[in-house]
Amino acid sequence: MNQQGFTLFIVLLLLLFFSMFTIHLVGLYKFEKQFSALEFEQYKLEQLMLNGKIEVTDIIENNSIGSRLSGSSVYYEGTVFYEIEQPSPEMVSVSLRAQTHTAYAKSVTFIYNTESKTFEQWTELGG
């Protein structure tokens, strides 16, 4: 059987298939690793938005805003920029922009009702 060179051909063919399978698995691993990193960044952005929302509601509840107030808060995960406007005594318009240290960003605008202490017209925007 080996006199015509079948053994070498079969071994090389098996090595080729095994190499292709290994390269495919490495590619899948790299893709999953990138996806996991992006998902972790999304989690950081959600956490920043939650922290920013809590801080802004504290500012609204404890301070008189006037017509416009803006600022930023630095957290371990990144920075939250906020802009607060008060078009009427019971409604406050808020814009939040969260940015991680790796420059991923997310923006949110909402209206906060100071009488019922509820969030209205919540709109999320990408980076």
Descriptive notes:
- The chain has a five-stranded antiparallel beta sheet, with helices on one face.
- The model has no long low-confidence stretch (mean pLDDT 88).
- It is of the alpha+beta class and 127 residues long.
- The protein contains one helix and five strands.
Draw up the topology in text.
Elements: H1 6-62, E1 68-74, E2 78-88, E3 91-100, E4 105-113, E5 118-125
Antiparallel strand pairs: 1-2, 2-3, 3-4, 4-5
Which key terms come to mind for this protein?
single chain, 127 residues, alpha+beta, five-stranded antiparallel β-sheet, 1 helix, 45% helix
Within the largest sheet, what's the order of strands? Answer: 1-2-3-4-5
Could you give the count of β-strands? Answer: 5
What fraction of the residues are assigned to beta strands by DSSP?
A: 35-45%
Q: Helix- and strand-based class? A: alpha+beta
Oligomer: single chain
Q: Low-confidence runs (pLDDT<50, min 5 residues)?
A: none
Biggest β-sheet description: 5 strands, antiparallel
Radius of gyration: 27 Å
Shape: rod-shaped
> Counting H and I runs of at least 4 residues, what is the number of helices?
1
Secondary-structure element pattern, one letter each: HEEEEE
- Terminal Cα separation, in Å? 65 Å
